Amino acid sequence: MRSRYLVPILSLLILFSIMARAQTPVAAKKFFQQGQKESEEGNFDSAFEDFSRAIQISSRLDRPKHQTTLGLNRFNQSADADRITVIDPFTALAYTNRGVVRLKQNDIVGAIGDFNAAIRISPRLTAAYVSRGVAHRLNDEVDEAITDFSRALMIDDKMVEAYNDHADALIEKRDLDGAERDLNHALALNSRSAEAFYLSGYIQVLRDDLSAAMKNLDLAIALKPNLAAAYHARGTVFMKLSEFDRALENLNQALKLDANLPITYMNRGLLFLLQGKDAEAQRDFNECQRLSPGLQPDLEKRILFAKEIRGAKTR
Length: 315
Prior knowledge:
Blueprint: H1 16-19, H2 26-40, H3 44-58, E1 59-61, E2 84-87, H4 90-104, H5 108-121, H6 126-138, H7 142-155, H8 160-172, H9 176-189, H10 194-206, H11 210-223, H12 228-240, H13 244-257, H14 262-274, H15 278-291, H16 296-314
Antiparallel strand pairs: 1-2
């Protein structure tokens, strides 16, 4: 199952202010800055082209003379790192940012290729390891993700995002104690990490400690009101407490913030089913299946269970 939480992808983009180097060509810096701007505005195709040009300008590639810069095949560009003869470390940063853009475009394989290129160029670039770990999580490769988050933390043991991502992957493996240790580290470094409070709340949901879960989720939402996953989790707590109106309010808010949460559609559909709103429930189940076909077996089991509960209440 894909991650319930990921560091917001654009936050992984490396800021121009920390990467500019004197030897970097001015044109490369310009395209890098443009790529940042386009990414922040959601113009990912343009951002991809800008970061690609920054890579090409800041590197000298041993390519055939007849091949033009604009003629590079999109899906082979990350392989260019193998043919770079002179390179500015800046290029690794541009590869990392282009990989992040690929993730936003749902090109996971291409993203991993870019992160691999960045790491070959700059083996201690923590953002590349975290970004590649995120890509592995999106690809349901939990063990590989854990390895990458661990590598980032070996390089920088004060990287809050890496602790949060590592914790999330451990939750997927049901290593709740290990995840809790990670989150304690994260909160010790940043007592206002909304993601850490959210994940702590999610652990408490899994442990069925609903009171503790609610406290952590309330804190997460107070710190970051646009954290969709926290609303989803809080809605789940309200469902467990049979407070269906408040559950629906939170699930609706989660989907308002992020319309691509299949499990939220599943839970809201189950809530509608328990309330006898079959048409609304079916719409949510259809959307859940569209977004994540792999959830079908789990969805079917939960629908049967919800129908049994509803049937018992009407007897």
